[in-house]
Amino acid sequence: MTRFASMRGWALTLIALAMLPFILPSDYYLGIATHALVIAVLALSLDILIGQGGMSSLGHAAYLGVSAYAVAWTTRNAGWPAYAAIPFALALGTLTACVFGVLALRARGLGFLMITLALGQVMWGAAYRWVDLTGGDNGIRMQARPVLLGFDLNNATNFYIIVCAVLLTTLIAIYKLDHSALGACLRGTRDQPRRMRMLGHDVWKIRFVGFVSAGFWGAVAGVLYAYDYLYVGPSALSLPQSAEALLMVVLGGAGTLAGPVAGAIVITVIKTVVSSYVDRWYTLLGLTFIIVVSVMPKGLVPGIRSWMKGNRA
Amino acid sequence: MSEIPALEIASLNKRFGGLAATRNVSVRVMPGERRLLIGPNGAGKTTLFNQIAGDFLPDSGSIKLFGQDMTRLDTRHRVRMGLGRTYQILTLFPHDTLRHNVALALLGTEGGGWSFWSALKGRHDLMARADEALGQVGLAEVAGRPVSQTSYGERRRLELAMALAQKPKVLLLDEPLAGLSADERETVRLLLEQIPRDVTIVMIEHDMDVALAFADRITLLNFGEVVLEGTRAEVIADPRTREVYLGH
What we know:
Chain A is an all-alpha fold and 313 residues long. Helix content of chain A is 76%, strand content 3%. Chain A has a domain at 30-238. In chain A, β2 (147-148) and β3 form a beta hairpin. Chain B folds into two domains: 1-82 and 169-248, P-loop containing nucleotide triphosphate hydrolases (Rossmann fold, 3-Layer(aba) Sandwich), CATH 3.40.50.300; 96-167, no CATH class. Chain B contains nine helices and ten strands. Chain B has helices at residues 45-53, 75-80, 98-110, 124-136, 152-165, 182-194, 208-214, 232-237, 239-246; strands spanning 7-16, 19-29, 34-38, 60-65, 68-69, 83-86, 170-174, 200-204, 217-222, 225-231. A six-stranded mixed beta sheet of chain B has the order 6-7-8-3-9-10, sandwiched between helices. A four-stranded antiparallel beta sheet of chain B has the order 2-1-4-5, with helices on one face. The radius of gyration of chain B is 19 Å and the shape is globular. The A-B interface holds A 176-177, 179-185, 187-188, 191-192, 194-202, 206, 209, 213 and B 53-55, 74-76, 79-80, 85, 87, 91-96, 100, 103-105, 107-109, 112-121, 123, 162, 166.
């Protein structure tokens, strides 16, 4: 019953997303929808850490940033085609997660949060200061999106469809992880690390693999980000970017598939649409956040679900 | 005796600051034996378990499992060598079903926990064996229920099922009867008696009626030290036992 309801919910959402290009009045709005879904991939990747692994990170934008820079730099300065730039960017972003994982997983809880924050800031500092490589504050601008398999991604609708496809792939992969043995072990290390050890599990390694897979999907978001904006600057891997991703997860509901996506959409809409009418959109974002967490402490998606269940009963 | 002990602890010492939690403890438990560890609160029984399990390392001394030194090994390697443990304070995965809890135990000893694509529920062989382990402790009917919806007595038995599913050679039981009603205690007592003799058991337990009947040999600890060791009759008859428990 609940399983059917949730399947129906997903099907309706997907149909709605697929119809967007035909409903929205202009490419401007489609562009905003694209931004939201790109950042939803980042939020989903962060939720592997938070929802399944119980590890909150404030440096998660680093993988998005590294991978986005890698795409932009290799495309712009080395003239690499997309099919070379993309795997390279994914590899580099994932490698960054490996290094971060080795350093950050020495600690838990607040210590872990602070180390990820510091590492994220190191990356931001490098992007900002290492002007020869990153262009510093000016960032790296790309000329155009690639043509993939005959699909010209410079067409807003085409690019939107690709982003939808990647988002769907991410959702399926995370759903699979959630229900797999590894996902079970990851949640085990979140709930009872000592018991997991006593059951013969390698707790560090399980956390590390979880951490790196989160980094990989963050890097996937980075590739989309680079092609979406055709520009990468230090803000891509800044602390506000990491914090925003964390906010999306918490607002939407950690540990659910729909939560981070909902959080990403709500925050992007407030940030881009509402901010063109309201000056202090950060205030509005803060107010929204406070209202949601006080009415629905577990986030929007679990909150709405239990509210609907209550109404039906 | 020339036989290799299942568990051999030699001159073990552990200090926490000024507190000597384990003082020169030596214990030999033979294969198949049922050993009871007794002693007042703070005698160092659980601390000793923690060192055997590898939660923390001793300052000096050695711990061997069937002659193999494991004093400095990681907990998970000790588990692979055949060590199992249950906890006095329930240490379960509360959001998951009983079956899922036992499946995690099986994944721990058998590997296969790295699969990130195929559904855990679809591993029918694993789930069947989890159900079998639950059946052995009389929990087959509630196998699909989340731990949070089971009674305390059922959780105690789940602790046992998780340890037994791993087919340990040496099993450490930390107060398996703690907090149980008289009926439930009887159930668990029978379960413990059914454990085959190829499993060596070291048990901490305060319920003397059950524990004394169960044990082959008894070790009495006080202030981190072994006060005496012997058969049931020897320990009960020894005046030091009364002295430790009654303080005179």
